[in-house]
Amino acid sequence: MLLRRTPRTEATDTGTGARPDAPRPPVRAAALALPLCAALLTACTGGQGQERPDAGPGAPSAPASAGPTAVGTAAPAGAKALAGRYRESGGDEDVYAVQRESGPDGVPLLTVRSRATDSDAQRFDRLKESLVFFLVQVEGVSLERGYLMDVFGRDGSLLHRLDART
Question: All domains of the chain, ordered by start, with CATH?
Answer without folding.
Answer: 77-163 (3.30.70)
